[in-house]
Amino acid sequence: MQRNVRPLITTPLNKASYLFINSESESVQGTNNNFSYSLDKLPQPKNIAFNFYVKEVFYPSNVHQLQSKHYNYNKIGFRVRENSTGNIMVTANFQIDEGTYDTSQLCTAVAAQINAYSTSTSGLYGGDQYTVNYNQITNHFSFTRLSTTLVLGQAYSIELLANDAFAKYQNVPGFGLAYVLGLSYNSTFGLPSSHTVPLNITICPNPPNLTPFQYFYISCTGLANMNLCSDVESTSSIIYRCPLSLSGVGRYSHLVIQEANPEYGQYYLPTLNNRLNFQLLDQYGNLFEMAENSAVDLTIKLVPIE
Fold first, then answer.
1. Hey, is 180 helix, strand or coil?
2. Which of 6, 139, 189, 203 could hold 160 in an S-S bridge, CB 3.0 to 4.6 Å?
3. CA–CA separation, 58 vs 53, rounded Å?
4. CATH number at residue 230
């Protein structure tokens, strides 16, 4: 006797969709810190809401911590003063290349800029050379003068300015190369006026700040944030806080998080748009400058709300 066989009806246990997004892939438009991802081929209806979860983040950790945009971390003001009269002869800026520096590399870069300027103006101010050192015990930078050359009977000295390069941003002090070197806010720091011991060394008053950036943030426009929690005042669409490691050990940092990020609460998409727009931001809401050819990988989980 033939029995009727009931057909097996399968029901999907998980209707979630996963988006694997690389900021330099062909499906992405924009730059590595401001890009959008197309959802045209996503096999999901666009007229329903979705819960939005970050499953995985992968990004390079060796960003340029000394960069010029917004905060002048690679610039410092200086002036040349005549020793005997105290007259200021010229005021300008030193600028080192943007990049990631340890203490030794920063010493070399700063000394190179000072000495290059001194050499170029040797006919005016003597061309005396300096060295920059870092003491691992006291945790301070210091400047040493190697010679004192008279020009028409006069000697000259250089002062670093923490009152113009140590600029405020949004009324908050702590910017510019003066901050990184450990100079006091709104002050001047005189390099040695003579090469004779003990007057040939001056020591920066504060420990250096070689990590002015400790985090950057990934935001996604179009999200609704259930509890409006954010580390960046200008936006409530932060989906992940990315800690930075500037020690130079290892180029990439691979971070994995499971489901919704508890630091920023639950996000959802009221309507699924054709594109998701992502931005990498610093703590002041400005685009965070990544090094060239630095890609960010995101794994996003979308769960339809039924």
1. helix
2. 189
3. 15
4. 2.60.120.1100
Instruction: Name all contacts of 201-204 with Cβ < 8 Å and 24+ positions apart.
Output: 201/142, 201/143, 201/144, 201/145, 202/142, 202/143, 203/138, 203/140, 203/141, 203/142, 204/140, 204/141, 204/142
Our separate counts of H helices and E strands in the chain read 3, 18
Q: How many CB atoms lie within 10 A of CB 1?
A: 2
Domain interval for residue 199: 75-203
Q: What is the pTM of this model?
A: 0.77
Go through the chain and tell me how many residues it has.
306
User: Which tokens belong to 188?
Assistant: 């001047």
The answer to whether residue 3 sits within a structural domain is no
Residue 232 φ then ψ, to 5°:
-115, 120
